[in-house]
Here is the input.
Amino acid sequence: MVPDLRPILDLVWPRSCFACGAALDNRHGFLHICPDCLGRIDLILPPFCKRCGCPHFEENFRPVGCGACAGRSFAFRSCRSLFELRDRGRQLVHAIKFHEGHHLLPDIGRMGEELCPELAGKILVPVPLHWRRHWARGFNQSDRICRALASRLRCRVIPLLRRIRHTGTQVGLGFRRRRANVEGAFAIRPRLAKKISSRGEELVLVDDVFTTGATLNACADALCRGGFANVRALTLARA
Ligand SMILES: [Zn+2]
Ligand SMILES: [Zn+2]
Here is the structure.
């Protein structure tokens, strides 16, 4: 049995909460989120929309879709998000996306394992950045989220998509303009597609935030055009 070195590590290198700075001990399961701040992350638990993952959802009224996704078609079968993009959840996404919040990834993996155990063993596909943005940022946050989930859920991460067109920011755009902005921006990598034994295998697209689903939709569309039609999506947060 591997000895638990965490108590010794904590003495040498004390841990603190990423959001409020409170000191953390070993009894709390999360490494860099204190219990108070964890309580301020609005986790999305059932019932949520089975199609778009919207948490503000009355199951009894709409068996398929919800007020947020009614009338919108998606190339993915369903999407789910771990938490809402506000309060500490927003800070968590920002830390991972803009501030090299690398140390937070084990906590993300743990959250994913607790909320989405059904992802175990699946193939995860990160939403790619255009190489210019990747180069400027130094990393792709979606790829990091994939690897955090994969380490807890024994998933394979296959960066099956590439961004073939640089797209401007989606911030401030409405649903239609977001869709137009990313349409045709992605393509599959045929060489990596060969690593997947069956085209019917379920693929899980992974991104940081679901806002209107336009980016995930364009990615799922590229996967469908490449012959992978069994696609669902997962994001850390839901705007
Ligand atoms: Zn805290
Ligand atoms: Zn919905």
In short: The two ends are 43 Å apart (CA to CA). The first helix runs from residue 6 to 12. Residues 17, 19-20, 22, 34, 36-37 surround zinc ion (ligand 1) (CB under 6 Å). The mean pLDDT is 90.
